[in-house]
Structures are given as structure tokens and as C-alpha cells.
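User: Structure please.
Assistant: Input sequence and predicted structure:
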Amino acid sequence: MPVIRPAPVRCRFRTWRGERPFWAGLFTFTAGLPILYWPYANLDLGGIPLALSTTSGAGSLVIGVLLLTLGVTLCCRPHLRLFAGISTLLLALVSFPVANFGGLFLGVLSGLVGGSLACAWMPPPADEPAAPPGDATVPAIPARPRREV
């Protein structure tokens, strides 16, 4: 039975993801989407128009764009994780009264999880190997002892 190895792209992505707070960035980015969406959406429920657009449209825009930016920042600049995590937590809490209950609770919950993950994430130690333990790697070739003449 042949051994199936993951594609090199997937291995590189897994290594890249392990070196940064990827899940914190994803949750933070996801928090910005419902906060941006609900104030500008015009829904039609069985012929009854439902509009959640209020005077908080500008606040929702600012908070949503900042959360999207912080999500990308967490993935691209892991050394800014504490700043981005604390900012995410504060923006998620502020979005509750400002932006339609924080995007109908979806943005608040996702923002709190993303901010908490960002604050709790620690970079891998320098002596840890770059590849995850389950990956098949080529063993190093031992050096030959030198012959003295």
C-alpha cells in the first residue's frame, strides 16, 4: 500500500499557519463581516421589508473595517498579536450597543473568540522544528568521519 504524502503546498500552508495566530485572525475577520452587513442589508420577509439601517451605519462601517483589518494583521504580522487581540476585544464589545447588537450577536461572539485567541497565542519556540510532527521528512545524511593521513 503506497504512502500518500500531502502536497507541498499544503505542507507549506500548514507550516505557515503554525507560525502565526491563524485562527484568531480568521475569527476576527469573520467578526467584521456581519457587523458590516446588517446595517446595509435590505431584507424582505414575506413581503414585509426589514431594514436594520439606523444612525449606527457609520459606526458599523468603522468597526467592521477595523475588525477586517485586524484579522488580516493577525495573519500577516504575528508580533502585533497583543495589540490586535486587545483591540479586537474592545471593538467587539463596543459593537454591541453601536452596531445592531454587534451584527445580531454573530460579530460580538466571533470577535470575542478571535481576540481571546490572539491574546492567548504564543509563538513556537525557536528550537522546535518547522515541520509538524506528522509530516514525513527526509532524514539527514550523517557526515562521514574524516580520515587522517
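The chain has a mean pLDDT of 83.
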